[in-house]
Design a protein that fits this description.
Layout: E1 7-10, E2 16-19, E3 23-26, E4 33-37, E5 51-52, E6 55-60, E7 68-72, E8 79-84, E9 92-94, E10 101-105, E11 108-112, E12 119-124, H1 151-170
Antiparallel strand pairs: 1-2, 2-3, 3-4, 5-6, 6-7, 7-8, 9-10, 10-11, 11-12
Protein backbone atom coordinates (compact mmCIF):
# COMPACT_ATOMS: atom_id res chain seq x y z
CA UNK A 1 0.00 0.00 0.00
CA UNK A 2 2.96 2.35 0.24
CA UNK A 3 2.88 4.07 3.63
CA UNK A 4 0.55 4.06 6.58
CA UNK A 5 -3.16 4.53 5.93
CA UNK A 6 -5.24 4.36 9.05
CA UNK A 7 -8.73 5.26 7.81
CA UNK A 8 -10.77 2.96 5.62
CA UNK A 9 -14.25 2.90 4.08
CA UNK A 10 -16.18 1.42 1.17
CA UNK A 11 -18.61 3.63 -0.72
CA UNK A 12 -22.01 2.39 -1.92
CA UNK A 13 -20.50 1.36 -5.28
CA UNK A 14 -17.86 -0.81 -3.57
CA UNK A 15 -14.86 1.50 -4.07
CA UNK A 16 -12.41 1.11 -1.18
CA UNK A 17 -10.91 4.35 0.16
CA UNK A 18 -8.08 4.95 2.62
CA UNK A 19 -6.61 8.08 4.19
CA UNK A 20 -3.74 9.52 6.16
CA UNK A 21 -2.67 13.06 5.22
CA UNK A 22 -4.09 12.41 1.75
CA UNK A 23 -6.69 10.09 0.21
CA UNK A 24 -6.35 6.98 -1.89
CA UNK A 25 -8.36 4.26 -3.52
CA UNK A 26 -7.21 0.75 -2.75
CA UNK A 27 -7.38 -2.32 -4.94
CA UNK A 28 -8.65 -5.03 -2.59
CA UNK A 29 -7.06 -7.78 -4.67
CA UNK A 30 -3.51 -6.38 -4.81
CA UNK A 31 -3.37 -3.75 -2.06
CA UNK A 32 -2.12 -1.19 -4.59
CA UNK A 33 -3.08 2.38 -3.76
CA UNK A 34 -3.86 5.26 -6.11
CA UNK A 35 -3.52 8.82 -4.72
CA UNK A 36 -6.61 11.01 -5.04
CA UNK A 37 -5.49 14.24 -3.40
CA UNK A 38 -4.87 16.16 -0.21
CA UNK A 39 -5.90 19.73 -0.95
CA UNK A 40 -7.68 22.30 1.17
CA UNK A 41 -7.12 22.43 4.89
CA UNK A 42 -4.22 20.52 6.37
CA UNK A 43 -5.42 17.26 7.89
CA UNK A 44 -4.11 13.96 9.13
CA UNK A 45 -6.86 11.42 9.47
CA UNK A 46 -6.96 9.93 12.92
CA UNK A 47 -9.20 7.04 12.04
CA UNK A 48 -12.21 5.85 10.05
CA UNK A 49 -14.01 7.54 7.18
CA UNK A 50 -17.82 7.62 7.19
CA UNK A 51 -20.06 8.59 4.30
CA UNK A 52 -23.17 10.45 5.46
CA UNK A 53 -25.68 11.31 2.76
CA UNK A 54 -22.93 11.06 0.14
CA UNK A 55 -20.57 13.38 2.08
CA UNK A 56 -17.27 11.99 3.36
CA UNK A 57 -15.90 13.00 6.77
CA UNK A 58 -12.78 12.37 8.83
CA UNK A 59 -11.46 13.35 12.23
CA UNK A 60 -8.08 15.04 12.35
CA UNK A 61 -5.76 16.29 15.04
CA UNK A 62 -4.96 19.98 15.04
CA UNK A 63 -8.15 21.51 16.34
CA UNK A 64 -8.02 24.21 19.01
CA UNK A 65 -10.22 22.46 21.58
CA UNK A 66 -9.74 18.89 20.42
CA UNK A 67 -9.68 17.03 17.15
CA UNK A 68 -11.46 18.67 14.23
CA UNK A 69 -14.09 17.35 11.87
CA UNK A 70 -13.14 17.67 8.19
CA UNK A 71 -15.49 17.22 5.23
CA UNK A 72 -13.98 16.03 1.95
CA UNK A 73 -15.17 16.90 -1.53
CA UNK A 74 -15.14 13.53 -3.31
CA UNK A 75 -14.70 15.18 -6.72
CA UNK A 76 -11.60 17.27 -5.89
CA UNK A 77 -10.48 15.64 -2.60
CA UNK A 78 -10.18 19.07 -1.02
CA UNK A 79 -10.83 19.07 2.73
CA UNK A 80 -12.83 21.76 4.54
CA UNK A 81 -12.91 22.32 8.31
CA UNK A 82 -16.37 21.77 9.74
CA UNK A 83 -15.32 22.62 13.30
CA UNK A 84 -13.69 21.40 16.50
CA UNK A 85 -15.13 18.18 17.91
CA UNK A 86 -14.17 19.36 21.39
CA UNK A 87 -12.49 16.08 22.33
CA UNK A 88 -8.95 14.92 21.64
CA UNK A 89 -7.99 11.48 20.27
CA UNK A 90 -11.13 10.75 18.28
CA UNK A 91 -9.89 7.54 16.68
CA UNK A 92 -13.11 6.35 15.18
CA UNK A 93 -15.99 7.82 13.19
CA UNK A 94 -19.00 5.84 12.05
CA UNK A 95 -22.65 6.11 11.19
CA UNK A 96 -25.39 3.60 11.83
CA UNK A 97 -28.12 5.40 9.93
CA UNK A 98 -26.38 7.42 7.20
CA UNK A 99 -27.66 10.47 9.13
CA UNK A 100 -26.08 10.41 12.59
CA UNK A 101 -22.31 10.65 13.10
CA UNK A 102 -20.62 9.01 16.05
CA UNK A 103 -17.03 9.07 17.22
CA UNK A 104 -15.02 7.06 19.71
CA UNK A 105 -12.48 8.50 22.08
CA UNK A 106 -11.17 6.40 24.94
CA UNK A 107 -14.24 4.93 26.64
CA UNK A 108 -16.60 7.57 25.23
CA UNK A 109 -19.06 7.33 22.37
CA UNK A 110 -19.55 10.83 20.97
CA UNK A 111 -22.56 12.18 19.08
CA UNK A 112 -21.04 14.58 16.51
CA UNK A 113 -22.96 17.35 14.74
CA UNK A 114 -22.03 17.21 11.03
CA UNK A 115 -22.97 20.87 10.59
CA UNK A 116 -20.73 22.29 13.35
CA UNK A 117 -18.32 19.48 14.20
CA UNK A 118 -19.23 19.72 17.90
CA UNK A 119 -19.23 16.43 19.76
CA UNK A 120 -21.00 15.55 23.01
CA UNK A 121 -20.59 12.37 25.04
CA UNK A 122 -23.57 10.15 24.21
CA UNK A 123 -22.48 7.30 26.49
CA UNK A 124 -19.48 5.93 28.35
CA UNK A 125 -18.69 2.25 28.42
CA UNK A 126 -15.85 2.02 30.92
CA UNK A 127 -16.31 -0.75 33.47
CA UNK A 128 -18.28 -2.84 30.97
CA UNK A 129 -15.45 -5.27 30.28
CA UNK A 130 -14.46 -3.50 27.05
CA UNK A 131 -11.13 -1.90 26.26
CA UNK A 132 -10.40 1.61 25.03
CA UNK A 133 -11.58 2.24 21.47
CA UNK A 134 -9.01 2.62 18.70
CA UNK A 135 -11.52 2.71 15.86
CA UNK A 136 -15.14 1.99 15.17
CA UNK A 137 -17.68 0.35 12.99
CA UNK A 138 -21.41 -0.04 13.32
CA UNK A 139 -23.49 -2.97 12.16
CA UNK A 140 -24.88 -2.17 8.74
CA UNK A 141 -22.58 0.83 8.16
CA UNK A 142 -21.12 -0.47 4.91
CA UNK A 143 -24.48 -0.62 3.18
CA UNK A 144 -26.31 -3.86 2.67
CA UNK A 145 -26.76 -5.64 5.95
CA UNK A 146 -25.95 -9.28 6.38
CA UNK A 147 -28.99 -11.16 7.71
CA UNK A 148 -28.57 -12.65 11.15
CA UNK A 149 -29.88 -16.13 11.90
CA UNK A 150 -33.20 -16.06 13.69
CA UNK A 151 -33.33 -16.94 17.36
CA UNK A 152 -35.78 -19.77 16.70
CA UNK A 153 -33.47 -21.19 14.04
CA UNK A 154 -30.56 -21.24 16.48
CA UNK A 155 -32.74 -22.76 19.19
CA UNK A 156 -33.94 -25.44 16.77
CA UNK A 157 -30.38 -26.23 15.70
CA UNK A 158 -29.35 -26.52 19.35
CA UNK A 159 -32.23 -28.90 20.10
CA UNK A 160 -31.34 -31.07 17.10
CA UNK A 161 -27.73 -31.23 18.32
CA UNK A 162 -28.86 -32.08 21.85
CA UNK A 163 -31.15 -34.84 20.54
CA UNK A 164 -28.35 -36.26 18.39
CA UNK A 165 -25.90 -36.30 21.30
CA UNK A 166 -28.42 -38.10 23.55
CA UNK A 167 -29.07 -40.65 20.82
CA UNK A 168 -25.32 -41.29 20.48
CA UNK A 169 -25.01 -41.70 24.26
CA UNK A 170 -27.74 -44.41 24.33
CA UNK A 171 -26.05 -46.44 21.56
Amino acid sequence: MGGSKNSLVFDAAGTFYAASSQHFTLDVRTGASTPLGSGGVSYSSSGDLPFIGGDLFLSSGGGVGGDKLVQLDTETWVGSDVGDIGVFNVYGLATNTNIDLYGLSGYNVLDINVGTGAGVVATKYSGQGLGIAWGSSFYGEAGASVPEPGSLGLLGLGLVGLGFSRRQAKS
